[in-house]
Amino acid sequence: MQRTRFISFSAVLFVAASWSLAAEQDSVPASSAVQELSLAVSVAAASGPSRVIYPDDRPEWVEAAPVKDGALDRIAVTSGPHYSLGEARRQLEEAIKTAADEYVNHHLGAPKAAQYITFEVTPTKTYEERPHFSFGPMYQSHALLQFDESFRRQVEQDWKEAVTLSRLVKTGLSGGAIFILLAVVFGYLKADNATRGFYTRRLRFGAATMILAVAAAVYFAAQWIPWI
Predict the structure, then answer these.
(1) Which helix (H) or strand (E) holds 69?
(2) The pTM is what?
(3) Which of 92, 139, 162, 185 could form a disulfide with 79 if both were Cys (CB 3.0 to 4.6 A apart)?
(4) Which residue blocks in 49-148 are alpha helix, DSSP H?
């Protein structure tokens, strides 16, 4: 019996040692593979930008910083690299809108002014290229935006009109709500006096229902008003 237990215990130790050795052998290649992959990524990241080859006809304005030339402001925007020309053009349109909105917001001093006015910005120059990166050729689209004094005056006028309209609507909504509430209260008092208090509870319930309805209507109407 003791010999049998000893043999069983030895077999368990042998199996456990085999599993441990197999796990160590499997982990060494995995660790080496991870190190090699990390090294390859680091080398690619380090060597990628230095290996970009641009076309010879690439204009200088595509990488120029925003410039203020008297009353004229120039901003260059880019789509960034993309695998297809169509995607590069779509991203350029979004970049143009973002740059124009930021310019208008900054000029008017309101972080969301561009959401409440309508304006159109047409690039004065565009350029499309296909530079070669370390991982292959890509497409990029560029545009040069210009904002002159007439554009700034137009957005200023549109912003003033939007603010004025918003204030008028808010004033009208508030005044209308107050008028309706006073009418409900006055109607309740008049009806209660006319019935000599026989229907006070019913009248109070009706007045409260009217007040809640007015409050709900004002709340939902306020959701459609630009709170500038």
Answers:
(1) strand 67-69
(2) 0.64
(3) 92
(4) 85-108
